[in-house]
Amino acid sequence: MQSTRSRRKVAPGAADAAESGEKQEQLLLSSAICNGEDLGPFVRKAFASGRPETLLHNLRQFSRSKESEIEEVCKAHYQDFILAVDDLRSLLSDVDSLKSSLYDSNSRLQSVGCPLLSSLDSFVEAQNFSKNVDSALQSVSLCIKLMELCSRANHHLSNGSFYMALKCLDSIENEFQDKTPSSTLKRMLESKIPEIRSHIERKTSKEFGDWLVEIRVVSRNLGQLAIGQASAARQREEDLRIKQRQAEEQSRLSLRDCVYALEEEEEEDEGGFGGDDNDSYNYGKNGLLGFDLTPLYRAYHIHQTLGLEDRFKQYYFENRKLQLTSDFQVSSMTPFLESHQTFFAQIAGFFIVEDRVLKTGGGFISKMEVENLWETAVSKMCAVLEDQFSRVQTANHLLLIKDYVSLLGVTLRRYGYTVGALLDVLSKHRDKYHELLLSDCRKQIAEALAADKFEQMLMKKEYEYSMNVLSFQIQTSDIIPAFPYVAPFSSTVPDCCRIVRSFIEDSVSFMSHGGHFDFYDVVKKYLDRLLSEVLDGALLKLISSSVRGVSQAMQVAANMAVLERACDFFFLHAAQLSGIPLRMAERGRRQFPLSKACNAAEEILSGMLKKKVDGFMTLIENVNWMTDEPSQGGNEYANEVLIYLETLVSTAQQILPPQVLKRVLQDVLSHISDKIVDTLLGDLVKRFNVNDIIGIDVDIRLLESFADNLAPLFSDDGANQLKNALAESRQLINLLLSSHPENFLNPVIRERDYNSLDYRKVVTISEKLRDPSDRLFGTFGSRVAKQNPKKKSLDALIKRLRDVS
Fold first, then answer.
1. Basic residues bias located where (predicted)?
2. Taking every pair of C-alpha atoms in the chain, what is the biggest distance, in angstroms?
3. What is the distance between the terminal CA atoms of the chain, rounded to a whole angstrom?
């Protein structure tokens, strides 16, 4: 390397630069040494650049420069140094005297200090002994405290105070276990504390398991009590509504002399059930029905202390979920009607307990977990209801289950649970319930009608009148009659009314408390079906198959009139129970739903009366149609018919309403008029004269007088309507007795006086009219006699009518 370097030619400028750099480095190194700085950077730099010789060279030069400086300084201070040495030599004598003095002092100190040292050794030994005694006392005191804690822990364990025992164990672990001087005690604590904790966990788990078993029974009783309180509250509401309806009814009837006040009873929540936080639940041993959450919270608290909080929560949730799943089991050995209350009460009690745990557990269970359990329960209950409702074949059974389910919904809604799905299931089976209810009512009505004896009902006491008449508002007067009282209807009427009222109440009971508020239209629809299909059909069957005789037909017609008034009560009663104002129900009133049976009853009564009348009308065959003298007192048939009608009216007016009796009599009189016209029209009468027409006129006048005599019963308009029933026979007789029969051809006169006559009948009957002198051989002596103008007019009428036909 040196040979290579020697061969290089260095330029003069480069050599100068290198020389100035070395001088700079030498100055920096000198400055660092003078300032006492670290020379490490210079050494590293020298070795890094591969020139340590330069560094050594600079250090040697610095050393030589400093040696010369030292030499100059020594030369400068040489005289001072000589003087200092002289001074030191003069001090030697003083040092010797001081040395001897120190020796003497040390001797005296040794002689004095030895006893003190022995005393100090004794003191140190006594102090160490005292420390050992204090340490022993402290150890004993610590052991005593430890034993006291252990004894206290054993006492708590024996008394079942597991939480306090665990607190003692925590104190032992935290304060004494590491400080215990006895290794034996320490080993004992290390082995026994885990065992005690395991024992506490087992005992707590056993108590909690016993509580889980007990809470199932408690939940059932709790659910039954809560649902019972909801039922009592509902009954109080029903009683209040009844009072309100009574007040509204009295107000509607304008009974202003009475003052009615609705007093709502104070509701006392005896058991403290409710959804708020002020419920008086007792968590001690005297809890309501044993509803004690203390074992649960104690177990939870102990598991918290043991650090097993999450595991215990999971254990509780899984066990309660299994219990709920077990509660869903429906026994196939017991009818659901008998077990449904226990079934739903168990579930209600379960969620009442869970609600209380949720609100008082401090996060022990979450709201989401309870909601998940509730959703599972709702879906299962809906499935059970769907299955059981599909099997129920009795309306009353379905209503009992529905009412209890609705009470369950009311109870649990107070705790914040949603019950819409349950109410939807109830609404879904509304039609089936009403079909079953209609079927039951059909059987009951058939039995009631089959037991009817078609006799007026006798009531001996006022309560019977109130029960059978006033309760259905079928009375005709607000005055209480004297007793014994014979009603115009038979026992069938109140029996059917009770059946219909029961139907209304059952229908409203099913529709109410189910989440629906405006259900009157539904109740009205099924009430219409009951009346128009079931009751009307049963009455039609009764009328067509069981009515034998006029008295029975009259009684059925009287019953129908009373039932017509009862129908008004039915719809108003349905409106009241449904919470609909009566004015709205009256505004929406429809036609009489039993019109078919009513018409059939009147028709069969009229038919039987017509048959009776026909028996008397056969006497018309005994009439002499070519008599010389007109009958003054009426023909025999007319008198017999009149006697029968008067007897009929005297009996019928006691049970039949005037309107019904008027319609029946109107039909009978119209039939009598038809029979008279048919007799004159038939083959029985070959010819007749004016005297016979005058006799029939007397007969019709007797019947018209009979109608006039009924004016006090039917009013003048009613009497005129009865007389109008004889219009055809009356107009025919008037035409035959008229002086100008041809006026029948005048449209104005015909419409006014003969509008009920058929011109064909007029022709046939008019042709049979003969003059009194027109007898066999009666024209031999009067061939040249002048023709009667009336006869001439009648012949012209007949000729004109024949031409028209």
1. 1-10
2. 229
3. 169
Q: Which residues contact 577 (CB under 8 A, 6 or more apart)?
A: 504, 505, 508, 512, 523
Instruction: Sort 635 into a burial class: Cβ within 10 Å, 0-12 / 13-18 / 19+.
Output: buried
Q: Is 485 helix (H, G, I), strand (E, B) or coil?
A: strand
**AA letter at 590:** R
Tokens 């202003």 belong to residue: 256
* Amino acid sitting at position 13: G
Are 602 and 581 spatial neighbours (Cβ–Cβ below 8 Å)? no
- Dist CA 336 CA 377 (whole Å): 18
Instruction: Report the candidate in 344, 350, 219, 363 with the shortest Cα–Cα distance to residue 291.
Output: 219
Please give the distance of CA 734 from its chain centroid, rounded to a whole number: 75
Element (H, E) at 68: helix 52-90
Please report, as a single letter, which amino acid is at residue 275. G
CA 580 and chain centroid, separation: 20
DSSP 8-state secondary structure symbol assigned to residue 175? I
Instruction: Give the number of other Cβ atoms within 10 Å of residue 628's Cβ.
Output: 9
Give pTM, 2 decimals.
0.66
Backbone φ and ψ of 496, nearest 5°: -65, -40
169-181: pLDDT as tens digits: 777 777 766 667 7
Where do we find the tokens 């059939």? 600
Say which residue the tokens 């009489």 belong to: 592
Q: What is the pLDDT of residues 421-462, one digit of tens each?
A: 888 888 888 888 888 889 889 999 999 988 888 888 888 888
Angle at 563 between CA 559 and CA 564, to 5 degrees: 120
